[in-house]
């Protein structure tokens, strides 16, 4: 991102906050940093769009149904809802029905990155990482992840639940983050944190529960800034289920609350 892009993003966020009556978010937007890795990075899409959401590509240790590229339709639903709430220009993934394709190709996402190539990461201040199984990062991948976070990046990590019925991704992510940032670095995010109330008020429930085991929202902070949001409750599948076919028992709340959390997390990440 160039310095001008950073200034434009601040103005955009402040204007969106004003229109929505979000004074606190406007103040946070005005405090957006001017320097760091993302102020120097450049990517063509950054000039055309206010926001885009890359997926992180990685390998699970075992064969699982829901791999890193599960249902890009969920990404599109979230970005459509984001643009409707804050009137921003987002890049929508070119996909069809809510669950088709079930496993996307690179072309079905805003962008695809991995933690082997730090220079690619520098183009994007926000990343989404999800899957179903256990995984491990190499020493170099963990070093790049730490550098990405310390230089201003944000990662939303969400456990996808399907055939395993367990929280394998969450377990691996928790362990990997503690290896990367130090023992005790993964902490509970309290319901009082602004990420649960900056746009939509989820402060009474905290982390929405779509499926799986709810461990509560966890995260890694870089100073005072929340830099990694870790969920065990299948938030991305909630984004995907706009028709209410997968989680009918939620009465539509699964999709709605998952979308609301996604909007909150994105807006927090862009304003800090």
Largest sheet: 5 strands, mixed
Superfamily at the CATH H level? Domain of unknown function DUF4159
Whole-number count of domains: 1
Q: Based on DSSP secondary structure assignment, what is the total number of beta strands?
A: 7
CATH class: Alpha Beta
Distance between the termini: 15 Å
Report the portion of residues in β strands: 5-15%
Encode the helix/strand succession as letters: HHHHEHEHEHEHEEEHH
Rg value: 17 Å
Q: State the CATH architecture.
A: 3-Layer(aba) Sandwich
Query: Under CATH, the topology is which?
Result: Rossmann fold
Mean pLDDT score? 83
Write out the strand line-up for the largest beta sheet, numbering strands in chain order: 3-4-7-6-5
Shape: globular
Put simply, the count of helices is: 10
Helicity range: 25-40%
